[in-house]
Specification:
With 362 residues, the protein is α+β, with helices and mostly antiparallel strands. It contains eight helices and 14 strands. Strands 1, 4, 5, 6, 7, 8, 9 and 14 form an eight-stranded mixed β-sheet that branches. It has a four-stranded antiparallel β-sheet with strand order 11-12-10-13. A hairpin with a 5-residue loop joins strand 11 and strand 12. The protein is globular. The structure holds (3R)-3-hydroxy-3-methyl-5-(phosphonooxy)pentanoic acid. (3R)-3-hydroxy-3-methyl-5-(phosphonooxy)pentanoic acid binds next to loops.
């Protein structure tokens, strides 16, 4: 299907997708060109942390401007989010010709609190990209094979927020040319060659500070440009993705946890040695990280953590150790944080009950 082909009939409709957040084990930090990554990254696709998005579309009226007409987040108008989405849609006009002819009304809801350490841009932009791809198909009256549809959505999601391109795939996703396999820079692909032990991965997100991050990830990526360690970082990250691919295949859960901790710390190390150093971890973040290491030693269970560009710590564990981990979280970590969001590996995006006519993809 040629995306620039004129639509046959411009009708109204509504599409709806629910899409999860993800947490990178090997991190994407540093970009080039049109939101392309400087290194490959590999992430866990979450289950409980989802954005549910409904997009209604209609031909623009004679006096209306095309594009975003209204945006509600959790039922309320949010100017900051609306501006970001407007900007995103504007940038997609060459790829999605229909954006010049329709008005969109978007409603978005998260199953997790905003700015709480769960990457809401990943779930939101992946859900929005899926909705846009589906609208295009409804307007064209033609549909892509499922794999191509998701690949295209992953590409579009990437342009909204790099990490969002990974949320399209479960249980794990790999984004970036890692020098082996079919993996490329402009969209993610599922990574499915995993030992069954990893299917029981849990991510308990310890919210140390739910406030807005003092350093946005856009600024963080930008600062990598002047970072004296950048070249070494990109090579190390690609090597770690290849290592992680082997670990996931062979079921080395202890190595997995070690690599996850090393990467979480490396991300913050990179911020400390950047041209404008920033300190995003809080004393409680460090206390949680130390306690995780202590608990792993004491109970001899594979336990780890990772941290994104913020103070909140994702505690990684396996289902089979749940009893020990649940007690540890309750007794030792809960007193150190605002709340703990219990999450785990999920199943990826789902088409939900919108009123569009296309379907059966979720
Ligand atoms: O997708 P962005 O531009 O918000 O960047 C995400 C960066 C990290 O969350 C820190 C790492 C990652 O790979 O998700």
């Amino acid at each position: 299907m040629n995306p620039s082909t004129e639509p046959k009939v411009l009708e109204e409709g509504r599409v709806s997708w629910s899409s999860p957040s993800n947490i990178a084990i090997v991190k994407y930090w540093g970009k080039r060109g049109e939101q392309l990554p400087q290194n490959a990254s590999l992430s866990l696709t979450l289950s409980a942390s989802q954005t549910q998005m409904r997009v209604s579309y209609a031909p623009k009226g004679p006096k209306e401007s095309p594009g975003l007409r209204s945006f509600l987040f959790q039922g309320l108008e949010k100017e900051r989010f609306k501006a970001r989405i407007q900007n995103y849609l504007h940038g997609l006009k060459d790829r999605l010709g229909f954006l010049d002819r329709v008005c969109l009304d978007i409603e978005s809801e998260n199953t997790f609190p905003h700015s709480c350490g769960v990457a809401s841009s990943a779930s939101a932009f992946s859900a929005l990209a899926l909705c846009l791809c589906e609208i295009q198909e409804e307007l064209m009256g033609a549909s892509l094979p499922r794999e191509d549809f998701f690949r295209k959505a992953s590409c579009l999601a990437r342009l909204g927020s790099g990490s969002a391109c990974r949320s399209l795939y479960a249980p794990l996703a790999l984004w970036g040319n890692v020098g082996q396999g079919p993996f490329v820079d402009d969209h993610a692909l599922p990574f499915r060659e995993i030992h069954p032990d990893f299917l029981g991965l849990r991510d308990d997100i310890c919210i140390v500070d739910g406030g807005v991050k003092p350093v946005s990830s856009s600024l963080g990526h930008e600062l990598m440009e002047g970072n004296p360690w950048a070249k070494i970082r990109y090579a190390t990250a690609n090597r770690r993705v290849r290592q992680l691919m082997d670990i996931l295949k062979s079921g080395e859960v202890w190595d997995f946890m070690e690599l996850a901790c090393a990467e979480g710390m490396a991300l913050h190390g990179l911020m400390w040695v950047s041209p404008r150093p920033s300190l995003l971890l809080k004393p409680a973040s460090l206390a949680i990280m130390e306690k995780v290491i202590e608990c792993r030693r004491r109970h001899k269970i594979p336990l780890g953590f990772t941290v994104d560009a913020g103070p909140n710590v994702h505690v990684l564990s396996l289902d089979r150790d749940r009893k020990t981990v649940a007690a540890f979280l309750k007794e030792e970590l809960a007193p150190l944080c605002e709340r703990i969001i219990e999450d785990r590996l999920g199943e990826g995006p789902r088409r939900t009950a919108g009123e569009g006519q296309g379907g059966g993809r979720g």
